[in-house]
Structures are given as C-alpha cells and as structure tokens.
Sequence to fold (244 residues):
Amino acid sequence: MFQPFRAYLEDELFHRFDLRSRPIPPGLESNISDRGKNKATIQSWCYQCSQLRKIRYTYIDAGEMAQVFNCVIYPSHHYEIPLLGIDFLAFGQKKILVVLDFQPLFKTPAYQNKYIEPMRSIRDKYNELAQNLEMKFYDADRYFSKYLLFAKTDAETVVKRLFPAYQEYIQLYWRTLDNAEILQDPEEIEKIVKAQKDYDQYSADRDPAHGLFSSYFGSQWSERFLYEFLFEDASPLAVASTRR
Ligand code: BLA
Fold:
C-alpha cells in the first residue's frame, strides 16, 4: 500500500543529495518472520549526506495483515530545522492510520513562525487528513507540530489525497532545508544535539511499535531494533524488558 511513498522518497533523495550509506547494525537491516500466520518481512534503509545526518526508513510487509512505512530524517546538527517524521500504517483495509509531520525541536514562537507556519497552507488543503485525533502514546505538545497530518483513513484516500499531500510536505521540507541557516555557534549546535537526542529518548520510551515488532520478530530483536537502529541515541530504560 505504501510502496509508492517509499519509491517517491527514495527518488527524491537520490536526485537531490549526494548520499552515502549509513551502516545499520548487523542483523537489523532486515528480518523475516514465519510465525504461523504472522508471516512478515521488515526491511530498513539508512543514508547520510552533508545536510542530513541520518535518513532512515523502514517497510514492513505482512501482506493483508499489515503494511507499514516509517521514516525519520534527522538534519545535520548545524541546522535547527524540524525532523521529518512519517508513520503510515495499514492493518488490512479497515484500519489505516497515517501520521506525517515536521517534528519541531523547540517550542518558541519564533521557531513556530519560521518552520511550522509555512506548513499551514498545505495542511488546510488536506483537512480530511488532519483529524485532531487524541494521542494515547505520545504527548501532542512534544515533538509534534500543530499542522501535522494525523488521520484514520481508507485506501482510496491514501492514493487520492495522502499521496499528493505527502509530496507537498516533502517539497516544503526540501525548501526549508535549502533556506536554513548553517549554524556555527558551538552553543547553538550543542542545543540541537541535545534536542535531537531527547527526541530519540522520548520516542524510544513511548514507541507504540514494540508490540508489533515483538509479535513478528520476538522481543529481543525488537529491543535491539528500537535502541540500536531506530532511536540509537536513546539509552534503554532499565525496566525496558519488563515494561510491556
Ligand atoms: C502510532 N505507530 C503508531 C502505532 C504503531 C506505530 C504500531 C500504534 C497504532 C495503533 O494505534 O494501533 C508503528 N512506530 C511504528 C513503527 C515504527 C515506529 C512501525 O517508530 C518504526 C519502524 N511515529 C513515528 C514517527 C511519527 C510517529 C516518525 O515513528 C511522526 C510522524 C507518529 N505514530 C505516530 C503517532 C501515533 C503513532 C502520533 C499515534 C500514537 C498515539 O495515539 O499516541
């Protein structure tokens, strides 16, 4: 269901940036589950370039049971711009959840005006994809913007509405990056390092996907995938293995 989204992103990345592979820890690049009816494959890709220090995306294909496309782009620490976050999930044709956002590092009005307000005109065109759903795992006020796309939707809307919205957000993200100031002040850079690291910790601690990964690939593999690849700058919680 989301393969065209992955292909679009990949094409954009390869044409716009001088990408180098960024290593994925051994054993985490892909996996195949054959647990009875839970047949699933997971595959991940990771790149870097001078402007973007970590570009990672993952596709889970469990046929009709589940299709997931998840991506985070972390800009270089010289840019204060938001992270690009994508989480598209389809569990059969019935349950489709899509989230797309420029994930802000800071909450000041100046930051908001500079990096989030430009999303507004796109967001307003795609009202049906911005449903103000309640968040159960995350705090909507941390690392999410007020113009995120967040919707429970159907396959037709994914093709007809989400795909064009996705392209517009990605194009805006490239413009944001093109226009971003390259920061040189070590103190400013240090603030960005910390904010991106906090994002990893926050996200790893709350990630709602652990159960999904565990059901297919086991909890040990899932824990490694979460802390060694997806959110590698996070430290595992002491209670991680017992928390769920
Ligand atoms: C929700 N994301 C979810 C859920 C799952 C995932 C299983 C719960 C769906 C449900 O309600 O049943 C899946 N999360 C993943 C996967 C990965 C992951 C597969 O990290 C990694 C491969 N999540 C993100 C990013 C964003 C994001 C980058 O990883 C930002 C756009 C958002 N996911 C997001 C939000 C929800 C969600 C806002 C709803 C959670 C809530 O209700 O609090």
